[in-house]
Design goal:
The complex is a heterodimer of chains A (251) and B (246). Chain A is built from 7 helices and 10 strands. Chain A is α/β, with parallel strands linked by helices. In chain A, helix 5 links the parallel strand 7 and strand 8. Chain A is globular and about 50 Å long. Chain B has 9 helices and no strands. The chains are: A alpha/beta (251), B mainly alpha (246). Chains A and B meet through strand 6 and helix 2 of A and helix 6 and helix 7 of B.
Chain lengths: 251, 246
């Protein structure tokens, strides 16, 4: 589904984060991107979202060159990205309102887009019915993140990109939302790419784990994790391995 | 702020006024009751027309200021290049007391309403531009990126982020500027006009020496400023409900 080919990327006046970096992600897979601070995790996610463009090399999704945000990709950020002046319901509707604003122009909105009123479905599915008339400041962190997820799923994406989405939540809420994310990925046949700095979260969510090291990243170091989402000894072994690898990277 | 507290504060000020009038005990400071009686009597004798003319001038000035300054502030705040090019100009012009331009504006625009409204615009424009620009610059980039990922381009960002985000700044600028706008209105109505509260106050105080009527005009001008202040508060509660949820 996603083909990153010979990617080179650097911010202006800084050394490159990626140099001749290649990676392929198949449809329906769940990927976790792990690595120390400053290694380029979030930059890679933003590149996949079309919010940054490669300096060299290409990123293709479903065979199409990625040159701008793609209508069928959903991005969820750590601080939720909710509009503080809009209610939960209005935030969930936001993507639909943006699409209505432009119409099916094939650029901001898919050319074959037909408006669909599935807001109530996602409000109910994510347990937001009772707070739908409240503003983001009036609800908990977990509910805000559920709102951000609902806002993305309303647009029926096929690719879900998440940037440390649960890092500011308490352990119980984080666990609940991790389970919810995995079940939604299966239910909606989503490809998931999640950036995290927590090894446990990467192991819990990522069927494949991409470990980035100190920049520039040239080779993709991928760890298979067939038991993602399940508990057991295998998790601990993989956690230990990743922990050692990360220590090695930061040493 | 509770309405009861505002009413109590108003009552306190009226009491202080009455005490001052009693101590001074001269026609140049009549008591609040005397002014109140004259105020209602004068409403039928032209005060209402003067009030209406001043209200029209200040409202037109405020509306035009918002229509001109808010898009300018948004455009400057949303574009790094525009901000870099235009902010130094605003920096130089903002601190200049605009009231010194009264003669210049009168010379250019004549003695009609246009000059008076232009003076109000001159003052409010910079207040609104600066506050809206700062608000637009301060919008978290993550919020914009999040909207970008939903398909929003520049136009949608203005519609769904910059505009609603700047609304509180516009209202704050208006609230901060109402006092100055009404003061400038008073000064501009001293020149070459026969209508407006500024003319009414000056004419009764300096020509007719009708001090109770003069104070009735002062009260009307205060009510004008106060009414606009409450109006902006009301709009903020209606349009920016999210600011009051906690």
């Amino acid at each position: 589904m996603i083909d990153i080919h010979s990617l080179t990327f650097a911010y202006p006046h800084a050394s490159p984060l990626f140099e001749n970096f290649s990676l392929s992600l198949a449809r329906g897979e769940t990927w976790a991107i792990l690595g120390p601070s400053g290694c380029g995790k979030t930059s890679l996610l933003y590149l996949l979202a079309g919010l940054r463009l490669p300096g060299d090399g290409t990123i293709q999704i479903d065979g199409e060159l990625l040159a701008r945000p793609r209508p069928r990709s959903g991005l969820i950020l750590q601080d939720y990205g909710l509009l503080p002046w809009s209610t939960v319901r209005e935030n969930v509707e936001l993507g639909l309102r943006v699409r209505k604003f432009y119409g099916p122009d094939g650029k901001h909105t898919p050319g074959n887009y037909l408006p669909k009123d599935n807001v109530d479905h996602w409000l109910d599915r994510l347990g937001l019915g009772e707070v739908m008339d409240k503003f983001p400041a009036q609800i908990s962190g977990g509910q805000r993140q559920r709102t951000a997820i609902a806002r993305t799923l309303v647009l029926e994406p096929d690719l879900l990109l998440m940037d440390e989405p649960f890092s500011s939540l308490d352990a119980v809420t984080r666990g609940d939302l991790q389970d919810l994310t995995l079940s939604l990925c299966v239910e909606q046949k989503l490809t998931l790419v999640i950036v995290t700095h927590a090894i446990e979260e990467a192991v819990a969510l990522g069927g494949k784990i991409l470990l980035l090291g100190n920049a520039p990243n040239r080779n993709a170091r991928v760890f298979g994790n067939p038991n993602a989402g399940k508990s057991g000894q295998v998790h601990h072994a993989l956690c230990d391995l990743l922990w050692k690898e990360m220590q090695h990277e930061t040493a | 702020m509770k309405q009861r507290d505002v009413l109590l504060a108003a009552l306190g000020l009226v009491i202080v006024w009455q005490i001052a009038a009693t101590i001074v005990n001269r026609p140049i400071l009549p008591g609040p009751w005397d002014v109140c009686v004259v105020f209602f009597k004068e409403l039928g004798n032209g005060l209402l027309i003067h009030f209406g003319v001043s209200l029209w001038r200040v409202t037109a000035g405020m509306l035009l200021s918002v229509l001109l300054a808010a898009p300018a502030g948004l455009a400057i705040g949303a574009s790094k290049t525009a901000n870099r090019l235009l902010s130094p100009i605003i920096y130089l012009l903002y601190p200049i007391p605009k009231v010194v331009f009264v003669p210049v504006v009168l010379l250019f625009l004549g003695i009609g309403d246009a000059a008076k409204i232009a003076l109000i615009i001159l003052i409010l424009f910079f207040q609104i531009v600066v506050l809206v620009r700062d608000q637009a610059v301060g919008i978290p980039p993550q919020l914009l990126q999040s909207l970008n990922s939903l398909g929003a381009g520049r136009r949608a960002l203005f519609r769904f982020v910059y505009l609603p985000a700047s609304l509180p700044a516009i209202l704050t600028a208006l609230r901060q500027s109402i006092g100055t706008a009404v003061a400038v209105l008073y000064i501009s109505e001293l020149f070459a006009t026969k209508y407006g509260l500024g003319y009414y106050i000056y004419y009764n105080g300096s020509t007719l020496f009708n001090y109770p009527a003069m104070y009735a005009g002062v009260a009307a001008m205060s009510l004008l400023g106060l009414g606009m202040y409450f109006g902006v508060d009301w709009l903020e509660r209606k349009w920016c409900r999210w600011k009051f949820v906690n």
